[in-house]
Amino acid sequence: MLDRIIEILPELNVAFYETLIMVGIGLLVALIIGLPVGILLFVTERGLFWQNRVAKTILGVIVNLIRSIPFIILLVFLLPFTDFLVGTTTGAIAASVSLSVAAIPFYARIVESAAREIDKGVIEAAIAVGASPWLIIKDIILPETKPGLISGLTITAISLIGYSAMAGTIGGGGIGDLAIRYGYYRYDDTVMFTTVIVLIVLVQFIQYLGDFIAKTVNKR
Amino acid sequence: MIVIKELSKIYKAKTGHVIGVDKVNLEVHKGEIYGIVGYSGAGKSSLIRCMNILERPTSGKVIVDGVDLLRLSPKGLRKARQSMGMIFQGFYLASAKTVFDNVAFALKAAGIPTEKRKKRVLELLKLVGLADKAEQYPAQLSGGQKQRVSIARALANNPKVLLCDEATSALDPSTTKSILALLKKINHELGITIVLITHEMEVVKEICDRCAVMQDGKIIEQGATYEIFSNPKEDLTKQFIDTVLNFDLPKQLLEQCKGMILQLQFRGDLASDPIVSDMLQAHKVSANILHGKVEYIKEKPLGIFIMELLGDLDEMERARRYVEERLQQVEVIQHAR
Ligand SMILES: Nc1ncnc2c1ncn2[C@@H]1O[C@H](COP(=O)(O)OP(=O)(O)O)[C@@H](O)[C@H]1O
Ligand SMILES: [Mg+2]
């Protein structure tokens, strides 16, 4: 059994690396697009400084739409878009496209609900000293939600690991892909177990790291 | 300093319209401490929040230092708010920021460059007595200390006005006293006009030059605090005054008394006049002091005495009229039997 593991190690290495790429890109896009979308969902809410029902409704519907599509279907649905964007539909980079699309609304909702935890009075006090909306977002809302933003990233990362395994089924690469190819198609239990253990360790590690950082930045 | 004209605030709720403020007219003079008192739901918060347009009035005018706030652009309004500090019952400090950064935020909002912020923040923390807490987080402070930080933040940009929304209502009595003393000092030394709302008449008694009583969105009575205390007109005002001045005599005592029980109120300028002894000398009555105390309203004494008069019925009546002519407030608590 050990021999088999050593034999598979180079491939496992590549798969692990691919998983990291997929999850990493997904997280990055979640941060770059999902975070602003989440903040926008929050500040367009009733009673807040950019209160805007139309914007909030449109944004909310789009977010819900994407979130309600099962990932495996989103994956297939986005194949033409992926092809257009990166010129291929297989491999880790291609899989990252649909992972990113899924990660944006997922993280946006987490950001929105984290921001809702802020006492409205704190935002009001900032308005009362004459701060601009932009300064309030940058200096009050973001720092105040930091612990929530970080644990939200943790949750998103772990979900993306799960999604990336699905992406593997249609040739996306990564640990999931490896598990399917050997474990499912060739009944190779050793590879199957090894990949499962690697995934468990990865998830545990991310959870631990996320919790640790969230706790360190929490001043409440 | 602040002129409120025909101001109304109507909230749209699912169950219809809720009136927060109902056609209020009000003027707060430069350099004074103005109190607005009323029960919960009277519209005090709505009114004070309209003063810096945290709440946009449905109709009416808000003029602060000659500027009509409702005609300002968003940017102009932000600028105007920098000259009006505000503090709240819930303090509302940013929990992720240190004490220093919470105060510095107000300066940042006003576009003060980083180098200049430090000196000003330390100055402010010294003013509120928290110079040693600069690097702490709000979670590490007591309620009174948090309110001091929020006062420092409100004063950061040298405002002309400080608005206080139930600033002491979440604090214990001794902390309340120390915060009130700080507000008094700010008013006195920096000349900042203060508007404060509260449901505690004790607070008004302690620091307000003038005050108003609010009920159902309307101001039902207003005037100099001493006048309001010594000569309230409305029932609600009397109720509020009673929370500070009232002393209920034990029922048993009232039952035992055979004579006429009078409550006399002495205003500061009269307190030393020997009205009672003159009355006793001029009439064939004797007197029992049942209760007495002197309250200081904004440092002016207001004395209240309850006494039982004994003697001939007509003579007692003449004695009562004698004091009534000389004192503004004489009340018969119980007639002679
Ligand atoms: N944002 C709001 N939406 C709807 N009704 C409100 C709102 N704020 C206050 N009110 C209503 O306005 C009235 C006055 O409230 P408020 O100004 O908070 O009174 P106070 O500060 O004297 O307790 C109350 O009936 C309250 O329910
Ligand atoms: Mg209130």
Automatic annotation (TrEMBL), chain A:
<dbReference type="InterPro" id="IPR051322">
    <property type="entry name" value="AA_ABC_Transporter_Permease"/>
</dbReference>
<comment type="similarity">
    <text>Belongs to the binding-protein-dependent transport system permease family.</text>
</comment>
<dbReference type="InterPro" id="IPR000515">
    <property type="entry name" value="MetI-like"/>
</dbReference>
<feature type="transmembrane region" description="Helical">
    <location>
        <begin position="20"/>
        <end position="43"/>
    </location>
</feature>
<feature type="transmembrane region" description="Helical">
    <location>
        <begin position="55"/>
        <end position="78"/>
    </location>
</feature>
<keyword id="KW-0472">Membrane</keyword>
<keyword id="KW-1133">Transmembrane helix</keyword>
<feature type="transmembrane region" description="Helical">
    <location>
        <begin position="84"/>
        <end position="108"/>
    </location>
</feature>
<protein>
    <submittedName>
        <fullName>ABC transporter permease</fullName>
    </submittedName>
</protein>
<dbReference type="Pfam" id="PF00528">
    <property type="entry name" value="BPD_transp_1"/>
</dbReference>
<feature type="transmembrane region" description="Helical">
    <location>
        <begin position="149"/>
        <end position="170"/>
    </location>
</feature>
<feature type="domain" description="ABC transmembrane type-1">
    <location>
        <begin position="16"/>
        <end position="210"/>
    </location>
</feature>
<dbReference type="InterPro" id="IPR035906">
    <property type="entry name" value="MetI-like_sf"/>
</dbReference>
<keyword id="KW-0813">Transport</keyword>
<feature type="transmembrane region" description="Helical">
    <location>
        <begin position="191"/>
        <end position="210"/>
    </location>
</feature>
<keyword id="KW-0812">Transmembrane</keyword>
<keyword id="KW-1003">Cell membrane</keyword>
